[in-house]
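Bench log, entry 3. Co-assembly request; chain sequences pasted below exactly as received.
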Amino acid sequence: MSAIPVSPGAENWELPYRGKVAMLSLITAESAIFTIFVVGYIFYLGKDISGPTPRQVLDIPVFNTICLLSSSVTIWLSERQIERGRIKEFAALWALTLALGVEFLIGTGLEWKKLIAGGLTIRTNLFGTTFYSLVGLHATHVVIGAVGLALILIFTLTGHINESHTERIQTFALYWHFVDAVWVVVFTVVYIVGR
Amino acid sequence: MADHSIPIGGSLDVTPQERERLPLLDRLHEWVVTVDHKRLGILYVLYSLFFMAVAGAEALSMRIQLAVPNNHFLQPEIYDQFFTMHGTTMVFLVGMPILFGIANYIVPLQIGARDMAFPRLNAFSFWLTAFGGILLYWSYIGGFGLYGMGNAPDVGWWAYAPLSSKPFSIGPTIDYWALALIVSGFGTLGAAINIIATTLSMRCKGMTLLRMPLFVWLMLVVSALTLITITPLTAAQAMLLLDRNLGAHFFDAQAGGSALLWIHFFWIFGHPEVYVLVLPVFGIANEIIPVFSRKAIFGYPAMVAASVGIAFVSLGVWAHHMFTVGMSSVSNTFFVLSTMLVGIPTGIKIFNWLATIWGGKVRFQTPMLFCIAFLFQFLIAGLTGIMLSVAPWDWQLHNSYFVIAHFHYVLVGAIVFNIFAAVYYWFPKVTGKMLSETLGKWHFWLFLIGFHLTFDTMHFVGLMGMPRSIYTYEANRGWGHLNFIISVGAFIQGIAVLIFFWNVIHSLRKGKEAGNDPWDAWTLEWATPSPPPAYNFASDPVVHSRRPLWDIKHPDDPDWKYES
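Structure output for the full assembly:
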């Protein structure tokens, strides 16, 4: 092999981190799933043949939204802490992220409880069908994200996480950012455009 | 190991490969728990070949039923189940798994990697796909519960609403169908993510994106396309399950829902799906045609660009399946034009393959024969595709046998032919044994004759007005003789496939030793022993051009001098 001169590009051979590539691929795929549900929601806006309508029953979940969106900030801050090896600060911010995510889920649960008590279920009308499936799909993703956050928190508290895991933590954080970004779309479609 | 190939320095392991033979149960266990991309690739291919036999038998039963007018070989309900299961099986349990399986085996070898990026995800994906297939066929037993008569989905592979809704499809068969496709869809998604991460992050030193073998390129494009193709189906299936089991109203017209929405969602998946199946076989042609023409591929950058172009265009053509549902003329025009647009990048590819063969020293061995047939048949399939893209022509022939003939020309004439080419081409690498050329030629010629008897003739009965999915027809329609010819052709194809299976079994036991590089090829997989050891390369290879083995075999005239 020594006879063949090394061609340019072979000396500094660096390829993207496979975890991030995979996570971005997964996010692309998930985006397509959400797109179909969002299209379904918009397509059926105002096509109900019976009540209730979104304006009659939906309240804008301001507090919930603030919680979920700020969890993106806290997870970003915690990524910076793990980069520098500050495990305690990382754990605190990570736990805060988890708490904000759980708060969002509780908020959604309470909202659904009120709606169901008011007589809106998935079988009531097209609004119920599309609302519960779209918001439920998002909430499912928050649940998966929260489980992941909790697992990493447990690993951190038991001393299994250090700065060498930065890239993996950041990869997981990408997923959480995605879940938050989807909420911006869902929020806009369901609570602003659709109401 | 005595052959003419020259291994990449240090990449061959000289320690003997012979291992003590384990007891059968232990060997089986090894295969079940394996995370080796090569073994998983083999499992994918075997799994698909099994279902190819099953779905082939379903097709042959349908051809017996249609061979003569007023036939009652099958009951009508069974006939409906067979054409539904034939389509679903061939697309989801044969086409995709066999192509992803071949990719699983070949991609890491071609890019000089030791395994896929995520070996455990790889195994998980395979088993999801496998359980999806079992779930689909389980509906034959569990459709009405074990105590009742078996049942299977009978709503066509497109499962249009409202036929697929609860009132019209009682019992859980459609739920089996939807769940099976969601499960195997997740498997496919895992495989696609894995291939993307592997090609982007695991390439050996020197293998820049524009030095990747074209098969790897095509699999990268296909996997990216899969991400946004399979998922709409998953979403639509979830909606269908919600409708059927929780009383939602997505596709329920009585509550204001729309059956049309399902058709849109299905074809948003369904059309790009064709490209998910056909792009990998373009990749196979890209590997085989140059090697058997003894020339480097013509227009490599154009091939890459055309592949990416096809993937993009394929996302905007789905409603050409829907010209008859009554869209606006603006929509019709858009989808006519976008569909015709596909002809441009595919045309580039056909001309590049022809230019590769042109002036080459062509070796007409079995893999090349299948590829040449592919070229002609794919051209015809493309031409009937352009015909059907013209909306008025489609209004006349929609859901006729002309359409069936067109898409089988793609699925069989292009895809199955090239899958066979790939098996003949890579079988020596996978097993260390050559497939028999004699049996291979029998297989090829019989399959070719059978294919043309069946699918050429289908165009004519289609033009004569025979609709698809019909159980039987009256004698005075004048379709009888042609249908008989179609059925004869189907059985000739069946015999050819049996010869293929025999060839595989026979060659495994008594085939000629292959050596490392039986075709005098140029990509990295041929630098490993046959079969490759678990770790593929003893030391990481370094490449300097698109044809690393050419550089080593011809140090006086290496490729990297000419590639820029």
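The longest helix of chain A spans residues 126-157. Chain A touches chain B at residues 1, 3-4, 6-7, 9-10, 13, 15-19, 21-22, 25-26, 28-33, 35-37, 40, 43-44, 47-49, 122-123, 125-126, 128-130, 133, 137 (CB under 8 Å).
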